[in-house]
Every structure is written in structure tokens, then in C-alpha cells.
Amino acid sequence: MKRTKIIDALQSTDYGKEINVKGWVRTHRSSKAVDFIALNDGSTIKNIQVVVDPSSVDEETLKSITTGACISVVGTLVESPAQGQASEVQCKTIEVYGLCGSDYPMQKKGQSFEYMRQHAHMRLRTNTFGAVMRIRHNMAMAIHTYFHEHGFFYFHTPLITASDCEGAGNMFQVTTKNLYDLKKDEDGKIIYDDDFFGEQTSLTVSGQLEGELGATALGAIYTFGPTFRAENSNTPRHLAEFWMIEPEMAFLDQQGLMDLEEDFIKYCVRWALEHCKDDLEFLNKMIDKTLIARLEGVLKEEFVRLPYTEGINILQEAIKKGKKFEFPCNWGDDLASEHERYLVEEHFKKPVIMTDYPTAIKAFYMKQNTPTENNGSMGYNGAAAPGPTMQGTDVLFPQIGEIIGGSVREESYDKLMAEIERRGMETDKLWWYLDTRRWGTCPHAGFGLGFERLILFVTGMQNIRDVIPFPRTPKSAEF
User: Which DSSP state fits 153?
Assistant: First the structure.
């Protein structure tokens, strides 16, 4: 008999029909007259109740079916008399695929998230992680659908690269060399001529630079794939391996970029509310009781567009009135998550797009404002920004802080070269990138969205390690 997914069985009103459901046991409780098995196959947060007459099934087999066991049930779909469920299955036969002993790590009793990270290979079977992974899938579908409908082309950028997009140097090296017998020159530097690629290569921190090449040929592209950062960060917001969405668009200015960022993220939130109702209701009940209200709030509000200089002044005013921050927030400082969340959660009480950051704290490829743009209109209450600024557009969200980092890119070859030289960067690995400014350069802009940070916001989970199936963090590469 063809299997019926539990999500379909629960929605069916074809009562009296014989069906076959398969899945993993959530609970099994017995009475003298009847056994009740809650079965889940991952297709929905909801279980289907299987009602078993003990006299119709081998006694020892029935006793062996405990939490976590995998079974196949053939029975009749009937209308359920129980509250909260429309359908249930009156069991005729049970086939056991796999039993679970008392050492099964995901027993019905509640476990901490830290405990479940130690059993990441099994935590996916729990209600919470099933909900998170279904939402993760839906957000991926939303991303692809949005960009397809808006004329962007899905563009695949390399995972192995010889260039460092961010210039921070926190990259995982890729090599076939024997690390115990490295060939070095007279100065002690490693010689890579016998390595697989003939030069030093690493796992990418971003597909942006290659994405810009795509945008200057196809007009509008987006990347969506894994990226890697070798930062020794043990925080609830950092992973060594994570997924990034990076759209790039030719002929896009700063205003248009902010419009794109806001429209895109609202589309994703709306998709979650429309396609993940059951999972969101579960997470709203069990994880964060303000989750759905917060998601709906994002759709109702226009994002604040806030120059960095004004944001600094707001934070300094808050400090004068007694607000305590762990990190300093003077003009020129890179804002910490606590500063970003204060602006979003306490001051404006809505998402913020922060613009026009100091050039010194941002990447080399970002377009600088002209001296005129750095004055009055870019400052706070008419005050000039103390130093040069660039056309950045970072989206700040409640509970997360920065969720999107974007900017207009510098299209002038001379200005880009001047900034590279000012920073003391080597250009030999970026010759191909600079060629886009030499031949047919054009205005363009784009942003990067950390997929896991989006999932954090949409699910209400508190730790980024709990929104990716198998997290990669310092000293942790299991599973």
C-alpha cells in the first residue's frame, strides 16, 4: 500500500479509508482497553494518533514500541473524538522498522539545548528542531522565489578562492601539501608552487566580489551558498560555516538598495507567516511567546533610515541619561550588537537601516560619500559628520542586531585603487576584480544576509547553533 504522509492524513476527511502511515513514535501510552501511539514523520509539527486494540497486535511487539521507535501502521482513517485533532488511525497492523532502547538520547522529557547540541544527529527528530528545519526550508524557498520573480539570476560563486573579500584574513586554508614537510623560501615563507592550485587558497568568506562580476554582465544576480570564517568566536551569533544570500545589482543607488533590502526581508517574513503557521504557533508557545507578534510588527512598520552619525548621538544621549553599555560608542567605533539593539528595541521600536558609516570601519570596496554629502544632511540635527563616510546600508533587527550588511560599491577605478593603496592591500590577487572598473564600469550595489541570522529572527531561537543542522564552531566539527 502506498504510504500517506501524516500531514496529508491529518488534512483528509476521507473517513473510512484504509491508509498506511509511517514514522517515529513520539509517545506510547497504554491502558487495559486500548493503546495510544503518537506518530510523526517530519512532514508536520502535528502528530497523528494511532489507536491500537492490544488484542490485535502481538503483546511483546506492542510493549517494545517506545519513544523513538520507527513503525509502519496500516489502519482506517476515522474522525477523532479527541479535542485538538480532526483525524486518527484505527490500527489494523503494525510493522516495526527500528526499536529504541532506554538509552535513546531524545526521550520525551525535556532536554536543554546545550544537551541536544551534543546529540545533533538525533535532535532533528524533536518537535522544536523539526519546526526550525521546516522553517529553514521555507525561507530558502522564499529567497529563491523572491529573486526569481524580481528578475535576478541565481549565480554560483566559488567556494575555493585566492582572494580575501573582507580583508580580515580570517580564512580557512585549502591545501594538498604535507603540513609536516612544508617547502619554504629563504625568508621562511611557504612556497606553494607544488600545491594543487599553485598558490595559497582558502575557503571563501563571501561570494560578493565574484557576484559583482555577474551583476556587471547579467544586470542582477544573487548568490546563496555556504561561506566560512575562521574567527575564534564562541558567541550565540557566530558560526565558522554558515550560509549567505548576496544579491548584486547594476545601476542601483543607495536609495534603491535600501528599498530592496526592506522589500526583500518583509517578503521573507510574510512567507513564513503564510507558509509556516503550525510551526510558528508551536515556537510561539514553547520558545518565544512574542514571536508571531514581532514578525507581524515587521510587516506593519516602515524601517527607519538612520545616518550613523545620528545614531551615535542618540546612543550618547542615552548614556548621559544613565543607560549603561559594555562597549564604547564614539564616532568612528564599529557599533556592538547592544548598541544596535538599543536603537531598534528601545529607541525606535522598529527595524532600522543605518547608513553612511565612517569609511575607516568598512570594507575597501564601498563607495565614499563626497565632502558635500559628508556635511549637514549626513549628520545629526544639521551637524557635520566628523570624518569621511561611505554609502553603507546595514539593516538592524530586534533581538538580532545587524541582519543585513550592504553598500553601494565604488565604481571608479582611480578611487578604488587609491583606497586599496591607502589600506596597504596587495592588488596582485584582485587584478580580475579591478578589471571591472577598467572596462565598462557601472554604478552598482548589493548586500549580504546571513541566512542563519534570518532563521534566528523568524524562529525566535536564541543561539545560532540551533538553526543549522550541524553547527561548525571552534573545537567542534562533529557529525
Answer: E
Q: Which three cell numbers stand for residue 473?
A: 564552531
Contact (Cβ atoms closer than 8 angstroms) between residue 273 and residue 243: no
Chain segment 233-285, per-residue pLDDT in tens: 888 888 999 999 999 999 999 999 999 999 999 999 999 999 999 999 999 99
Q: What gap in Å lies between CA 444 and CA 435, rounded to an integer? A: 15
Terminal C-alpha separation, the chain: 35
Query: In 3D, which of 364, 321, 318 has the Cα closest to residue 339?
Result: 318
pTM value > 0.85? yes
Cα 286–45–50 angle (5° rounding)?
Answer: 120
What is 355-424 written as a DSSP string?
EEEEGGGS-TTBPBPPHHHHSGGGSSTTPPPSS-EEEEEEEEETTTEEEEEEEEEP--HHHHHHHHHHTT
Q: What are the tens digits of pLDDT across the range 383-402?
A: 567 889 999 999 999 988 99
Q: What stretches of 204-307 show up as alpha helix (H) in DSSP?
A: 208-218, 254-275, 277-286, 291-300
Q: Of 280, 302, 276, nearest to 291 (Cα)?
A: 280
DSSP state of 344: I
Cα R_g (the chain), whole angstroms:
27
